[in-house]
Amino acid sequence: MNLKKLLKVVFVFVLLTFIGSTAFAQTTFFVNNQSGDDANPGTALLPKKSVGSALIAAPSGSVISVANTGVNYTEGNIAISGKTYTFESSSGTPVFVNAAFDVGGAAAGPAITAVSAANPAIVTAAGHGLVSGDVVYIYGTGDASVDNQYWIVNVLSANTFSIPVDNTDGAEVAGTFRTKGAVTFTTPFQFNGGLNLYAGTLAGGNQVTVGTGVYRTELGSITAGQLNYTAALPFTYDDVVTGASTITTGFELPVVTNRAGALNVNSTSGSVLTLKLDQNRTVGNGNTVITTVVGNLIDLNAFTLDVVGRNWLIRNRGDH
């Protein structure tokens, strides 16, 4: 074989290898707390041991397939931040006895110190910790073309990223961002540590059972499927973005045939938060407390909020 033919064979081999690796890139990551190992690649034959390790390996858009082994999962909180995943289970309901499930970042990212007058705009936030493709919610810059919207970021450096917006009308020197999560459950899961809807969406709420409690901000929601509960739990609603806001209850709060153990209306931002009912709701498990920060409101919206229990208290009463 002469050199020319040899080079052609090598080229074809390299090309086929590249096409094969691209075409068969892993899109499902398997987790098994008995046979798995977090050093494994997360394939069906070599599963991960923890969901946390699978999320580190899995690119946004992947499926996380968790085996119900009959042994509870004991790992810590599971956070979907900046990315989108689908969760499925096999052979029943995996139970996570310690983990809360977090949708979106639990706290704001590093402060934004500059948004350039450019197209696309370059955002400076020292040590932002993002990767290209992450989704963030930006607010507080003072520019309507940038604020109160979700953006897909393109990371330029450890301290800068760009967002696809024409900001040539002027630069900004301050702001805040939060990472968005998006998750879909197609089969049953149970998280005894609770559910935190910080920023983003959860679909398939009817596949999820939670314990401990539910926390939701104005940036988080369940888009489909009524959530399930291990008991009458506390529910906390909170606004985190500066400015008066309204949260309308949804699939996260029990309907009238079930009960929420307690109802808390908070305001981390210091603004006025109105909690608005979307249907008749029931609160009560014997000793019920409905708590609102002074100035915050509960809008019945033509529905009823039934309080069940011999002892109950409304603290810092607003418009109830």
What's a quick, concise take on this entry?
This protein is mainly beta. It has helices at residues 3-23, 51-57, and strands at residues 28-31, 63-67, 78-80, 84-90, 95-96, 101-103, 114-115, 121-124, 135-139, 149-152, 154-155, 160-163, 176-179, 181-185, 189-191, 195-197, 200-203, 208-210, 214-217, 220-224, 228-229, 234-239, 245-248, 262-267, 273-276, 281-283, 287-292, 297-299, 305-307, 311-315. It contains 2 helices and 30 strands.
Number of strands: 30
Largest sheet strand order: 3-6-16-19-22-24-27-30
Work out the strand percent: 35-45%
* CATH level-1 class of the domain at 114-178: Mainly Beta
Kindly report how far apart the N and C termini lie: 88 Å
Structural class: mainly beta
Q: Tell me, what's the shape?
A: flat
**Mean pLDDT across residues:** 88
Query: Could you please say which CATH topology of the domain at 114-178 applies here?
Result: Elongation Factor Tu (Ef-tu), domain 3
- Helix residue percentage: under 10%
Major sheet: 8 strands, parallel
Task: Please give the CATH architecture of the domain at 114-178.
Answer: Beta Barrel
Uncertain segments of ≥5 residues (pLDDT<50)? 12-23
- Our Rg estimate from Cα atoms comes to 23 Å
User: Helical element count?
Assistant: 2
Description:
By secondary structure, the chain is mostly beta strands. The protein has a domain at about 115-180: Beta Barrel (Elongation Factor Tu (Ef-tu), domain 3), CATH 2.40.30.20. It has helices at about 5-25, 50-55; strands at about 30, 65, 80, 85-90, 95, 100-105, 115, 120-125, 135-140, 150, 155, 160-165, 175-180, 180-185, 190, 195, 200-205, 210, 215, 220-225, 230, 235-240, 245-250, 260-265, 275, 280-285, 285-290, 295-300, 305, 310-315. The strands form 7 sheets. It has an 8-stranded parallel beta sheet with strand order 3-6-16-19-22-24-27-30. The protein has a 6-stranded parallel beta sheet with strand order 1-2-4-14-17-20, covered by helices on one side. The protein is flat, with a radius of gyration of 23 Å.
